[in-house]
Design brief:
The complex is a heterodimer of chains A (786) and B (397). Chain A has 786 residues and is of the alpha/beta class. Chain A is built from 30 helices and 23 strands. Chain A folds into 4 domains: 214 residues, 3-Layer(aba) Sandwich (Rossmann fold), CATH 3.40.50; 92 residues; 244 residues, Rossmann fold (3-Layer(aba) Sandwich), CATH 3.40.50; 155 residues, no CATH class. In chain A, the strands form 7 sheets. Chain A has a 7-stranded parallel β-sheet with strand order 15-18-14-19-20-11-23, sandwiched between helices. Chain A has a 6-stranded parallel β-sheet with strand order 3-2-6-7-1-8. In chain B, helix 8 crosses helix 12. The longest helix of chain B has 26 residues. Classes of the chains: A alpha/beta (786), B alpha/beta (397).
Chain lengths: 786, 397
């Protein structure tokens, strides 16, 4: 055990300056006594990881808390791994310094750290009732595939009342199965998150589609129950019920809980945390939360930012803990200009200020002056997408391959250049509302697609990393692989046509895959012993090749591994391998619920086994893939992301990240003031309604709150939609370390002409407020135009 | 004029974590296979050994918990259908969700309500296939002696070590993490064990407890779903390194006592498969196993031919071959750690190559002289740049 003074000095000498003079809120947060609960409002780049890690280490070294009595939850597994790594690294440094002052070995690894879900999964497994099994948690693919099944049951995917209700909730026409499926799962999650009484919703809701929607959700829940499966929301709900019915030994000695990214907490999670916080409080410890309401992005996943804003009152009312907010405002990430730009941006909408934590101070530059050049904020706007892509590709080429990009601001000349010592294209990120390369339904090429192409055309091509850019089922190698599998297992589309006759769209997708496969076979790819053509023919004929007999069961995964022999991209390329993993995981996970067990059974006595298993494989694996049920998890790829790739990602994906040069798309596809794009720039009510267009999370909050215990939100749905859009661009702008560049079409910069009349284009990301005042003004002269 | 370069993006600060069995031992078998199966999470298509290893661990853990928490389960022998089958199904379901599935030959996972035959011999499910025969033998041979000695089951071991040859520019982290899971038996329970306890008998056979009567100590336990390796097989020494490293990890935990030994149970020895029998015959002929059969068993083994029924070997022979006691000594621990550090260094070097943009098959080398048995069951043998003896061709199906 060491004194606080000694701890502080050793940290200052060996790790980081935590003195009161350097950063008072940081000092106060780390040094607070064990029993003092904390409400930390941490602005972007404010070193909150440093605070969390040193708070934990202070509790261990100064307050003598056993690490196993400390629990820290974060938003992603990656964030948890980073936090633990920092605790271990700094813990080792301090342990060596305090070696002689400490009586026993310290096991930092026994800190309970992870996402709430991962911790719950472990606890429900380890502390289960005698005779019960550990929970089996399913992945997203299974959840979607199971729900597609439920939706297809009784032809409910064609139920017009259901479509109307979903379209109402979505604020947009929702009649296609993939969109219906996604939205139903979103509602299902919300029923857990907001503790919604679906029975009451079913009987009391006015909409004719509500009973069908509730039936589907209940059927889905029943399916999970019957198969003893859990998705993550069910896991949280189960845990919530368990901790409310009895004490769990695991928490008995808990002294400290810290929750990171609290602004994205949902109501169910809040109730879990409040219940758990009673353990440390009874043990003389405390609860701390860290977050930033201005960076809340996940209302669509059930997050309720108001729980963070009102934390002080809520914890007082429900847990009887009194605390004051502590504001971490020093920003160690960005230049002065970027910090000022973010401060100005977040305060320009007067109506937004009521949605923020009360009396919130502005962020303040903490980065040392001598460590950066204070580049002005830049803007690049062009007449059309082609010109914009050319200009941006040329700008990036100059920065990476050339002598740098030079521009003037008044008399001052600036040059932006990647650092020759360790710098690369991965220092640059383009952040967009959506990183999709092709527009859904209409199929036109979007900005990420054009930019990617232009960057490949420069003399020294620049590769782009955009794993979410394409719909998985439309990636050429995936089409070939899926087509080859279908050709092998279901020659001449016999089972496909018999089983999927009525689903013309799916049939078309399957046939498109088969065409890709056939063309690929026609190229006679290496190796040639046997050729791919011969391999597929042998499968079609059910004739053994290079072995003597045909076994009674064939694992589908085995066929996939053999087929990749002819597709090097899926064996050798990092991105290709991630795509392969996604297919294999889908096949593997489908075996949990599919009668086929993801294998084809051959039995001479029962020839129908073969047809049945193929039928099940098509329905349980390939129909969901065709309907877009696979999303690529970038966590699979980012650990070994090559350094020479430029990042394109959604603003949501960029949460928690920072880049030396950030390019924010503020309107590459906005030409006119049309209601159809208003959700991306300036939310409006649909004509004749008070329903917010295409923002389902906001619509759902209003539709469902009366069936939940959650208090109704006080701000209007339109206001909440504006608030969320402001937050989204605040997050985007604040990712930048050195240079921030806003890009878009001229229409968002200086307006557009329509039927001979000139109009401005209201847009939250170009300095408009919701009352239609344009603070940045036409021409966006607050930015240096390049 | 201002001219300064952009900052460089800060590197991820995650300490890479290695499981002794899942990572280090897998990599030692084959680097490329490790990249695909372990690092890349592509499940094996027919994971015979992986499935049974995980399965038997799960069954033994669950069986211990039931024995501990339920008085009715204190009596032995356990009946397969009544006592063991429900545990097997729980574990099967958990592994199923993780994408690790057995073939029907290995395990029947249908219950009596299933009316179809599928891969089984008939419709009378459940069938006690080889894995289930092994679980019954494992619990009734070792469980009854082992469970009363256990102090804690499923202890998670975790520690960090300095990254070998740390290089600020190349290395991902200053440290690497090393993890494992063990059961621990304690001296307290050993002393109160009734006479005739079989574990105690083997510990005494190795004279391990002679000088320790007054001290508190621990012994760590691990189960392997495999046959006892030959002593000239690398796996033999890898298992020893594993136990030695586990003992180091355990000794760093605040509630640990001195660790004097480790026990590995090779549970396939209780009921050999045809491939296991083939290997045993080979080991016996070459005298490359530390536990040789007596004359009667010897004859049975030598006369056995592939395709014939597995002979009934004596229970003593099967029992003694299924337990391996490893003594823990400081010097050996250091050597084991050093060996694993070398492995971590190789893995990190492959990761670095991959980060530099190298093709996966070039960044992750298969071993120079791979074992044929490793390649035969490998899902990637048709795309491997240099498999063991020959170039494998894709087969249909």
């Amino acid at each position: 055990m060491v004194s606080w003074e000694r701890f502080e000095q050793v940290v200052i000498d060996n790790i980081v300056d935590i003195s009161r003079d350097n950063n008072e809120p940081q000092h106060v947060s780390i040094s607070a006594p064990i029993h003092q609960s904390l409400y930390l409002v941490a602005g972007p780049g404010s070193g909150k990881t440093t605070v969390i890690v040193l708070r934990v280490l202070k509790l261990i070294f100064v307050d003598n808390i056993d690490p196993s009595n400390i629990m820290v939850t974060t938003f992603t597994k990656k964030a948890a791994a980073q936090l633990l790594s920092r605790i271990l690294t700094w813990g080792e440094i301090l342990y060596e310094c305090f070696d002689e002052e400490i009586e026993k070995p310290i096991n930092f690894n026994s800190i309970v750290i992870g996402t709430l879900d991962s911790i719950i999964e472990e606890i429900l497994g380890d502390y289960r009732d005698p005779g019960t099994a550990k929970p089996v948690v399913i992945e997203d693919f299974v959840s979607k595939a199971l729900n597609i099944r439920v939706l297809f049951d009784h032809g409910r995917h064609q139920n017009e009342d259901l479509m109307d209700y979903l379209s109402y909730l979505k604020g947009f026409n929702t009649t296609k199965v993939p969109e219906m499926n996604k939205l139903i799962l979103e509602v299902k999650d919300r029923t857990f998150h907001d503790l919604i009484d679906t029975n009451r919703l079913k009987t009391d809701a006015e909409a004719d589609g509500a009973p069908t929607l509730c039936d589907i959700i209940n059927d889905y829940k029943d399916k999970l129950n019957n198969e003893f499966l859990y998705d993550f929301t069910r896991l949280e709900y189960e845990f919530y019920q368990k901790i409310n019915s009895k004490d769990i030994e695991f928490f008995e000695d808990l002294k400290f809980i810290l929750i990171d990214e609290y602004q994205d907490t949902n109501y169910l999670q809040e109730q879990i945390y409040f219940k758990l916080s009673q353990y440390p409080i009874n043990n003389g410890g405390s609860i701390s939360i860290v977050g930033d309401d201005d960076q809340s992005l996940y209302r669509f996943r059930g997050a309720t930012v108001e729980l963070f804003q009102d934390f002080q009152e809520r914890i007082k009312d429900q847990v009887n803990v009194e605390l004051e907010p502590e504001y971490l405002v020093k920003n160690y990430r960005s230049t002065e200009n970027i910090v000022n730009f973010c401060n100005s941006y977040i305060t320009l909408d007067h109506d937004y200020q009521d949605a923020r934590v009360k009396d919130k101070p502005p962020i303040d530059r903490g980065r040392k002056e001598e460590e950066f050049i204070d580049f002005p904020i830049l803007g690049m706007f062009r007449e059309n997408l082609e010109d914009l892509s050319n200009a941006l590709a040329s700008f990036i080429d100059d920065i990476i391959n050339g002598d740098g990009y030079t521009f003037n601001n008044g008399e001052e000349e600036y040059t932006i250049k990647i650092n020759p010592d360790g710098g690369s294209a991965s220092d640059i990120a383009l952040l967009c509302g959506s990183p999709k390369e092709i527009a859904p339904f209409i199929g036109t090429k979007k900005f990420p697609c054009l930019l990617k192409r232009k960057l490949m055309e420069v003399d020294n091509p620049i590769k782009v990393f955009n794993p979410r850019g394409q719909d998985f089922q439309k990636i050429e190698e995936i089409k070939i692989l899926c087509g080859l599998i279908l050709e092998c297992i279901d020659p001449d589309t016999v089972v496909q046509e018999a089983e999927l006759e009525e689903f013309r769209n799916i049939n078309n997708i399957f046939n498109d895959w088969r065409t890709s496969a056939t063309s690929f076979i026609g190229t006679n790819p290496l190796p040639h012993d046997p050729t791919l053509g011969k391999f597929v023919e042998a499968w079609k004929d059910r004739t053994p090749l290079n072995q003597t007999s045909w076994p009674k069961e064939v694992m589908l995964i085995d066929l996939v591994y053999k087929l990749i022999t002819w597709i090097p991209y899926l064996q050798e390329n990092l991105e290709g391998l991630v795509f392969l993993e996604a297919v294999v995981r889908a096949i593997s996970q489908a075996a949990i619920f599919s009668y086929s067990e993801s294998k084809i059974t051959f039995d001479d006595e029962h020839p129908n086994y073969e047809t049945t298993s193929i039928k099940q494989i098509l329905k349980d694996i390939f129909v969901p893939i065709a309907l877009g049920s696979i999303d690529i998890e970038e966590s699979l790829i980012e650990e070994t992301l090559p350094p020479n790739m430029l990042n394109i990602m959604s603003i949501h994906q960029s949460k928690g990240l920072e880049f030396p040069l950030v390019i924010v798309d503020v309107g590459s596809d906005i030409r006119t003031d049309h209601w159809a794009n208003s959700h991306k720039r300036f939310p409006q009510y649909k004509t004749g309604t008070t329903q917010v267009i295409r923002i389902s999370s906001v619509n759902m909050e209003d539709e469902f709150h009366e069936y939940s215990n959650i208090a109704p939100v006080t701000r209007s749905n339109l206001d909440r939609a504006f608030d969320d859009l402001i937050r989204q661009y605040f997050v985007a702008f604040s990712r930048a370390e050195d240079v921030l560049l806003l890009v878009g079409l001229n229409s968002v910069k200086e307006g557009f002409e329509q039927r001979g009349r000139f109009k401005n284009l209201p847009n939250i990301s170009t300095g408009w407020d919701r009352r239609k005042n344009w603070h940045w003004g036409s021409g966006l002269n607050n930015l240096i135009q390049i | 004029m201002s001219n300064q370069y952009l900052s460089t993006r800060s590197k991820s600060k995650i300490i890479p974590e290695y499981s002794l069995t899942g990572d280090l031992l897998s990599f030692l078998r084959c680097g490329l296979q490790y990249r695909y199966h372990n690092k890349g999470s592509l499940p094996p298509s027919t994971p015979v050994q992986l499935w049974f290893g995980e399965f038997i661990h799960g069954v033994m853990e669950q069986a211990y918990i039931e024995w501990r928490d339920n008085d009715a389960k204190k009596r032995f022998d356990w009946e397969w259908e009544v006592d063991i089958r429900p545990i097997e199904m729980d574990i099967h379901q958990r592994l199923n969700a993780a994408g690790i599935r057995p073939s029907s030959k290995l395990f029947c996972h249908y219950d009596e309500t299933e009316t179809k035959k599928f891969g089984c011999v008939d419709e009378n499910h459940p069938h006690q296939r080889i894995s289930s025969r092994r679980t019954e033998l494992a619990i009734n041979t070792w469980g009854k002696h082992l469970f009363p000695l256990i102090k804690r089951a499923e202890i998670k071991l975790k520690d960090i070590q300095p990254m070998p040859d740390y290089d600020g520019k190349k290395s991902r982290s200053r440290y690497f993490g090393i993890t494992g899971i063990v059961d621990v038996i304690s001296s307290v329970n050993i002393r109160s064990a009734p006479a005739g306890n079989l574990i105690l008998h083997y510990l005494e056979t190795f004279n391990l407890l002679e000088d320790l009567e007054d001290d508190e100590y621990e012994i760590i336990i691990d189960y392997k779903g495999m046959k006892r390796p030959a002593i000239d097989d690398d796996t033999w020494k890898h298992h020893e390194w594993q136990i030695l490293t586990y003992s180091m990890l355990r000794s760093k935990q605040p509630d640990s006592k001195k660790i004097v030994a480790g026990i590995i149970f090779y549970l396939n020895e209780l009921e050999l498969s045809e491939d296991n029998m083939d290997e045993l015959k080979h080991d016996v002929i070459k005298k490359s196993t530390d536990i040789m059969p007596d004359k009667i068993d010897h004859n049975k083994i030598i006369r056995w031919r592939k395709g014939h029924r597995i002979p009934d070997l004596s229970s003593t022979f099967r029992e003694i071959r299924s337990i391996r006691v490893i003594q823990i000594e400081e010097e050996q621990i250091e050597n084991a750690l050093h060996q694993f550090e070398k492995t971590v260094k190789k893995i990190e070097s492959s990761v670095f190559k991959e980060i530099q943009g190298q093709n996966i098959k070039e960044a992750w080398d298969p071993p120079e002289y791979p074992k044929e048995s490793t390649c035969t069951v490998c899902d990637f043998k048709t795309i491997c740049p240099h498999p063991s003896t020959k170039k494998y061709k894709p087969t249909v199906p």
